[in-house]
Design goal:
The protein has 201 residues and is of the alpha+beta class. The chain has a single domain, classed as Ribosomal Protein S5, domain 2, CATH 3.30.230. It contains 4 helices and 12 strands, in the order E-E-E-E-H-E-H-E-E-E-E-E-H-E-H-E. Helix 1 runs parallel beside helix 4 and helix 2 packs parallel to helix 3.
Length: 201
């Protein structure tokens, strides 16, 4: 057998600022279960999808200044989730490092490619026809991923080839993100040390 999940890679992260108060528990070797309450219902929905498609277990409780808007809450959740993956994966020895997924959601098609490179970079090619879906500002999708990338130290490419419905586009992105994370974090028995010819990431 060439691949398996490492045993119980997990992290608990707490972040409290004047704008947000967040506690997050992540288990990489999970079953896709999620208990999420952020005060931003659309983000809750997307994180549940990400978790289910990534086969992680995620418990997340967040309060923030959503009376202003959702920006600080969404951004800080990206920060905390990025911190959690960085902590849970540790040295990243044995992981496949790269992950990719292409996911359709009805008329929308999203591609997500990940490299746990220790070189944080986001390439984000996503266009929306509307500025919001319900009360959720679609600009916050990019802010979430910027924050995640900055703290997880990954290279992340998100490309939406086409799509019309705003909800469908974002849903395809988060599902693909979960699947790509699952592939990239999988431990492969053929890999000794980190997956780099340099010997370090």
């Amino acid at each position: 057998m060439t691949s398996q999940k490492a045993k119980r890679r997990s992290a608990t992260i707490t972040r409290k600022t004047k704008e947000t108060d967040i506690t997050l528990e992540l288990t990489v070797e999970g079953k896709g279960s999620a208990e999420i309450s952020t005060g931003v219902p659309f983000l809750d929905h997307m994180l549940v999808l990400m978790t289910a498609h990534g086969f992680f277990d995620l418990t997340l409780n967040a309060t923030g200044d959503i009376a202003v808007d959702g920006h600080h809450t969404v951004e800080d959740i990206g920060i905390v989730l990025g911190d959690a993956f960085n902590k849970a994966l540790g040295t990243k020895k044995g992981i496949r490092r790269y992950g990719k997924s292409i996911v359709p959601m009805d008329e929308a098609l999203a591609s997500v490619v990940i490299d746990f490179s220790n070189r944080p970079l986001l390439v984000y090619n996503v266009e929306f026809r509307r500025p919001s879906t319900g009360s959720f500002d679609v600009e916050l999708v990019e802010e979430f991923f910027k924050a995640f990338v900055g703290r997880s130290n990954i290279t992340l490419h998100i490309n939406v080839t086409y799509g019309e419905n705003t909800h469908h586009i974002i849903e395809a992105v988060y599902k693909a993100f979960g699947q790509a994370l699952d592939e990239a974090t999988t431990v492969d028995a053929r890999i000794t040390g980190v997956r780099s010819t340099k010997g370090v990431l």
